[in-house]
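Fold it.
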Amino acid sequence: MRYQFVSLAFRLANGYWQHEESRPDGGRDVAYMPAWSSWRDYYSGTTELLRGYAICDCVREVDFQPDTTRKIIENRYFQMPNRPPLVYHTMFNDNGICHIKGRAFPELISPYFDSDPEWCDTIPGLLGNLRRRYGPGLIIYFNFGIHDGDKVKAARSLVQFARYAPDTLIVWRQTTPDHSGTKSVHHDEPVFEVFRNASLSNIAVMRIWETLEEEIKVRGKGSVFIDDLHVRPRINKLFSERLGQIVEQHLERQP
């Protein structure tokens, strides 16, 4: 989800998809952190490539482990003139205490500052705060990733919020299996069951994996995956285009 967000923000800020054209950006792939020297370099460099439209409340000095996520913060705020904002929050379980955390005034420390978080939220708390900050008409785009966690509980929180805020569109993006196939294609099926039972018109499920299976059969997994876990930049573009179609269909149904 991180790479899709940064790829889309780059497209909006620069007018082209980075992977489709050769431009003077130093060859640094915004959609693949290993192309950079460190997380600090990635956060700072990608923020620079977004041409002053982005704030990155970001720090990561440790490898991802369940007992170290308290030391990882990644929130991105992207705003162009006369356009709706894009906001990205990385969620970590933190043993159920706090799912999302950050600093109170990220614009003062962007793009990188190693300091303790000044706020934290559960998923329901974050959804409520987003609505208070940005008003009605939110589009919540959510994915749990391949990491362990109570996905059904998160889905139920989204259903509750969708009932409370019927003007909000919630899109759950299906989790892609990893390159090795150790994560099932049906990884999110319990979540989909929650949404099916809710039967709400403002919740959409984005089954992206089904659109990629045929290409993998014909061209191999290397055509979709850039490493064991992450998809190639053009696949992130495909995800964003599919999200745009869902949003357009939702808006067309509005009175």
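The chain has a mean pLDDT of 85.
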